[in-house]
Amino acid sequence: MASFSNSVKEEICSSINDKDKRYACLYGILLYCRHISERRILIQTESEAFAKLLSILTNSVYEGKIPYSLEKSERSNGAAGYTFTIDGYDAVFEALSFYGISISSREINLTHIVNNSLNVFLAGVFLACGSVTDPYKAV
Asked: What is the pLDDT, as a whole number, of residue 124?
């Protein structure tokens, strides 16, 4: 059974359906993903929809020029886990410089959020590091 948070993420992923939304969403994901270094961008999730979206976003925004890997594994609790990785200095540099992202500061540059895409940028932030609890779940 999928968690409420994963259900929300799945619904968000299904709404990222045009070039401007993909651009803004990936920007939010990259700014707030857990691990960025000069040699690796690493994103881990239990959401299959988000894992698939990462591939779609990367291929669409970077036009297939950034190599990445997406691996599925089984977690100790039996749930599936997905690891998305961009490896190598050149690939990471190209991916981050495309948006003007600095590893040391990760400041938001509003010029990358065009055509009223702030909500999609925030959706990307949520996908990268957010969680939500079912408001109807008994305490």
From this structure: 96
